[in-house]
Amino acid sequence: MGNILFLIGLPLILGSRKTLSFFGRRQKLSGTLTFTFGVILILFRWPLVGFLIELYGMFVLFGEFLVTLAGFVRGIPVIGGPVARALVWVGSAGGRAGGETLPV
């Protein structure tokens, strides 16, 4: 149910043109395909495998947003620094340089 609401809500927030351009980008194609395949596996009653594949697709699609989130987390006292470093590390795929521009 959450997957369906996510897929419905994203075009409502961003607009259909920006949503299609985001998911249709060449750099995001593997993330889009793995996310879609994970949703299909969940619908065909393979929830654990589908969730893991979908999670990988989410990291490929939305990993660079974690770097943006890290900027906000840095302001939290005591735990902000370590959590922000972890988010930047995960968001850049374990140290791989991102540097991609976002369409939105």
Automatic annotation (TrEMBL):
Record localization: Golgi apparatus membrane
The keyword Transmembrane helix is annotated on this UniProt entry: yes
Family the entry assigns: Belongs to the GOT1 family.
Name the UniProt record assigns to this protein: Protein transport protein GOT1
Transmembrane parts of this sequence: 29-48, 55-73
Superkingdom of source: Eukaryota
Membrane topology qualifier: Multi-pass membrane protein
UniProt keyword annotations, A-Z: Golgi apparatus, Membrane, Transmembrane, Transmembrane helix
Cited InterPro entries: Got1, Vesicle_transpt_Got1/SFT2
Biological classification of the source: Eukaryota, Fungi, Dikarya, Ascomycota, Pezizomycotina
A Pfam family: Got1
GO (cellular component) term, any one: cytosol
BP GO terms, sorted: endoplasmic reticulum to Golgi vesicle-mediated transport; retrograde transport, endosome to Golgi
Location (main, coarse): Golgi
Coiled coil: none
